[in-house]
Structures are given as C-alpha cells and as structure tokens.
Amino acid sequence: MAEGGISMVRLLPALLLLLAAIPSGAQIFNRAEIVFLVGSGKTTAPGQPKVEGAITRTQIFYHYFKRDRDASLKIPKWVDQTLEAMLKRPVWQDPDEGILNEAQLWQAPASVLYEFFELVRKSLPPSDGGQLIPPGNLIKDYEDKRIRFQMSLDRLVRAKLGDSLGGRGRSVIAHFELINKQYDSVMDGLVNGNTQRYKDAVIAIAALMNGAFQTLQSTPRGFKFQQNENKSSQAAAVVFKMIGVGLIIACAWSIGSLNERKIGDGWERYKTKAKEWAHEYERQFVVIKIHYLVGGPMALGVLVGLLTFDPFGFMIFTGFGIYAGLTLPSWLLRNIRFRRGMKCEAQLMDAMILMSNGLKSGIDLIGCLEMVQRDCLPPISEEFGLCIKNYQLGTALERALEGVEERVQSRLLSYMIKAVVIQRSVGGNLTKIFDRIVDNIREESKLQEKTAAMTAQQRIQAIVVGVMPWIMLIIMFLFQPQPMREYYFSGLGVATLLFCTIWIGIGMKIVNKLGDISV
Fold first, then answer.
1. Which of 173, 220, 455, 463 has the most CB atoms lying inside 10 A of its own CB?
2. Cross-strand pairs, 94
3. What CA–CA distance (Å, rounded) separates 18 from 260?
4. DSSP secondary-structure letter at 410?
C-alpha cells in the first residue's frame, strides 16, 4: 500500500503537467471560429452589426417552444400555428419528470446543446465570456452533456416525432443524430489530447445546430400552410374539374352518336369474339362470364377516374380500364392454357407408364385411356375422359386425340398423341414407343430443371424491372400526393407514363430473352 501511495504521488505531477500542456480555447480556436461559436459579443467593432453565434441560435431554438417567450423575438409563422397543439399533446412519460408534451421534448436537446456551448465558452478568453480553462479539465462535464443529449435524442426518436414541427421533424432529428456522432469525436479528442479533433468536432456541432435552426425557418418540401381563405377557391377548382369530366363524357357521347353504325358493327364483332372466348374457356373446363371480364376493368377505370376529380386523371384511368377490359379475356385464356399444359406435362410421364403397363398386360388402347381417366388426377384425367366420351359418341379415336392436342398447350403431350396416331396408321410396337417417350421425357425434365435454376436470376430481374418502377410511383404518390397528381395528370405527365411504360416493357422483354433457353 505504501509503495502504491508513493507511485501515485510520483504520477500526480506528471498528470498535472499533462493537463497544463492541454491548450485553452484561446489557443485552439481562432477569432472567426470563436465568433461562429458564441457570436461577436463585446468584441464587436463600432458600427459593425452584432453577429449571432451557434449558442444564440440554440437559445432561440429553445425559446421557440415557450408560451411566455420574449415578444421581440421573431417567430416563424408555423410556430404560432402549431405551438398550442404541441403544448397540449403529451408524447412521453418519464419516471422522474412525469408526462412531457411535444414542445418539451424538442426543448430538451436544445437545452443540452446550449449548456455544451457554455462549456466550450469556459475555454475562451474573458473578452468572450470565458475563463481560459483547458478543455481537458472539463472532461466529466462534456461526458455528462453527451449522455444527456443522447437521452433527449432517444426520446425524440422513440416518440416518433418525425412529422412534428410542421413536417420539419425528420430533418431536425437527422441534424441531432449527426451532432450525437460529433459528441463522440469531442470526447475522443479530449481523452487522447487531440486538440484538432476536438476543435473540428465542436465546429461541426455548431454548424449542424445552425442547420437545424435554419430548418425551422424554411418551409419543408410538400408542406403548405392551411389557409381558410383558399377553401372557396379549392371548392371552385373541384367544381371546374368535375365540369371538365362531364364535358369529356358528353363529348364521347356525341362522338358515339355520330358513329352509331360503326359502333354497332364493333358491338357485333365483340359479341362474336365473346362467344369464341366463352367456347375456348369451356374447352379449358372453365365457365366464366365474358362480359364480367370485359366490363369489370372498364367500370373500375371509370370509377377511379371519377374519384380523381381531374379531367386528365379521368382520361388516364378510363383509357387504362378500357385497354385492360379488352385484353384481359385473351390474356387470361393464354395463362390458363399455359398452366393447364404445364400440369398435364407434369402428369404425362406417370400416365404413359400406366398406359405402357396396361398394354403389356393385354389391355387395348381404349382401356388404357380409361385407366388414365380413372386413376390419374385432373387435368390429364379430364382431358382423356373427354377424349373417351367423344370416341364413344362416334368420333374417330385419332380425331378425339387431336382434339386433346388442340385444347392442351403441351409439346410432350403432342408427341405422344402423334406417336399413337402414326402407330394406328402404319403399325408398330406402341409399348416400346411409350417407353422411349418416357425416357426422353425424364431426361428432358432433368435438363429443364437445370436450365430453370440457371436462369432464375434473369427471371427475377425481369420481374424487378417491370414491377419496381410502379411500386416507387405508388410510394411517391403516398408521400407526395399533390405534386405527383399535378404532374402525372398533366399532358407532360401522360406522355412520361406512356414513354416509361413502353421502355419498361422493352426492358422486360430483353431481360426475359437473356434467360430464354430452348430445351
């Protein structure tokens, strides 16, 4: 213990010399930097305007959120409009301080920053209100300010005040988060005796605080003051827009009246096409009302267009609804045929093995088809079941099988049907033919799975290329609806949408082609 005491006594002078070696604020900051931190103060030359430093702006920031502030203080308009609501809105409950309102949460970090700048002032010369205390002697005080600032910032973040301050909350919090990082640099500079790092961090904190203060003076993008005097003009604008929509409808009605014969011919062509679509859907074992497929998107487009209360918006959504209604039946039919064909191909190998075993056991081809109908799952059981029914009604087996080939979009099934038709025409061992086709299908399936795995990235990229722009457009509409509506419901906006749609489609086609490998 005695030796330890002697060691401490020996180290004490060295520690004092080290602290004495740490320069004061007068040696760290030059004149311009001192003015930037604490303002010109008493050192202002005669006839020169007084310069506000970061400490003054921090103090003003704090007083913005006080009800009994100095009447001579210039306050932004939005502060007076929102202060009462902020003072009445409880947003945080502290075990020691009780319930805190929104204004108090914003005052807390400003209060800590003001104390921080006062701490920096202690290292400045007396002419600037300082005491020439070396910053290294104030490490504990700096650490206390850092911890308190972190706590006040954590409250702001956890209280989710990003939309506070009339839409400026996120920007101010971002400034405070950067200040919090600079606090670490301040402590690092003090602990390691790195005066340059300490100086840079203090200047950075002052600059960031000035940035937060300037944020309160500016209007955030997309934010507008609510003005009661504009309600009548807004209502008039809505009325005029509705009149514009009505004129568009009346114009379309007039054009339709002048071209009644052409519209009648088009309607007849549509009914013929609708019957063809209905027949094709029935061949895919799907019963659906074509008029619903066509009229549903059209009605939805018109409804959404009316809800926009904008002529351009009405034209855009109505046009899109008409296009979707006219193309949806054929697109859906192709999709159903493709998926049904893929399912049949997946079941084809089992069906052919079943038929091959049946032929080997002495069952004829019709009996083998009945086995497939009875033992396999849809859709292949449905297709062969319909083939058998057609055969029983008098249709030739070859023609019934060709009907299956027409209904099902499957290359492998087409091979099997052609093999059966050829065998019945010229003869041959159908069992061996089936076995060979099964082997080919098995090898081709392995190759298809391998190529699908190799081209998965291209397929995902094609989806991202096609979907991501529209997702971003929706997100932008959600966050900035008014500017987006004003742009995209204008002539230039419509042209932009058409241009982007065309090139997005081209991009999807190119990326899909990169991963398109024929097996």
1. 173
2. 98
3. 99
4. -
How many angstroms separate the Cα of 293 from the Cα of each of 15, 42, 166, 298, 301? 86, 81, 46, 9, 13
Closest residue by Cα to residue 351 from 397, 411, 412, 283: 412
Cα–Cα distance list, 166 to 82, 84, 173, 425 (Å): 7, 13, 13, 84
DSSP string, 104-127: HHHHHHHHHHHHHHHHHHTTS-GG
The answer to whether the beta carbons of residues 417 and 408 sit under 8 Å apart is no
- φ, ψ (nearest 5 deg) of residue 333: -65, -45
* Model pLDDT for residues 237-257, shown as the tens digit of each residue: 667 667 766 777 777 777 777
In-domain check, residue 12: no
User: Helix axis angle, 430-454 relative to 311-360, nearest 10°?
Assistant: 140
For residue 203, give the amino acid letter.
I
Gap between the Cα atoms of 244 and 250, Å rounded: 10
Tokens of 301: 């487009």
Same domain, 373 and 426: yes
User: 242 in a domain, yes or no?
Assistant: no
Q: Which long-range contacts (CB under 8 A, 24 or more apart) does 283-289 make?
A: 283/407, 284/333, 284/336, 284/337, 284/340, 284/407, 285/379, 285/382, 286/336
Q: Where among 199, 217, 235 does a domain terminate?
A: 217
Work out the burial of residue 32: count CB atoms within 10 Å of its CB; fewer than 13 is exposed, 13-18 middle, 19 or more buried.
Answer: exposed
Residue 344: count other Cβ atoms within 10 Å of its Cβ. Answer: 23
- Cβ–Cβ under 8 Å, residues 365 and 430: yes
Spans of the chain below 70 pLDDT = 1-27, 41-50, 221-235, 237-238, 240-241, 244-245, 309, 515-519
Residue 92, beta-bridge partner list: 100
What letter does residue 138 receive in the DSSP assignment? G
* Statement to judge: residues 175 and 98 lie in one domain: yes
pLDDT score for 49? 58
| C-beta separation of 127 from 43 below 8 A | yes
**Whole-number Å distance between alpha carbons of 384 and 161:** 66
Residues 428 and 494 in one domain: no
507: tokens are: 């991009």
As a whole number of Å, the end-to-end CA separation of the chain is 87
Contact 204, 112 (CB under 8 A): no
Q: Are residues 510 and 400 in the same domain?
A: no
Q: Is 137 exposed, middle or buried (0-12, 13-18, 19+ CB in 10 A)?
A: middle
Token pair of 102 as six digits? 């929104």
* Residue 129 covered by a domain: yes
pTM over 0.90: no
What's residue 4's pLDDT? Answer: 45
Please write the tens of the pLDDT for every residue from 194-229: 889 999 999 999 999 999 999 888 887 654 544 444
Count of CB atoms situated within 10 Å of the CB of 376: 19
Q: Residue 278, Cβ neighbours under 10 Å: how many?
A: 17
Is residue 29 classed as helix, strand or coil in its secondary structure? Answer: coil
Cα-to-chain-centroid distance, residue 419: 53
The C-alpha atoms of residue 190 and residue 178 are separated, in whole angstroms, by 19
Number of domains in the chain: 3
Say if residue 410 is in the same domain as residue 475. no
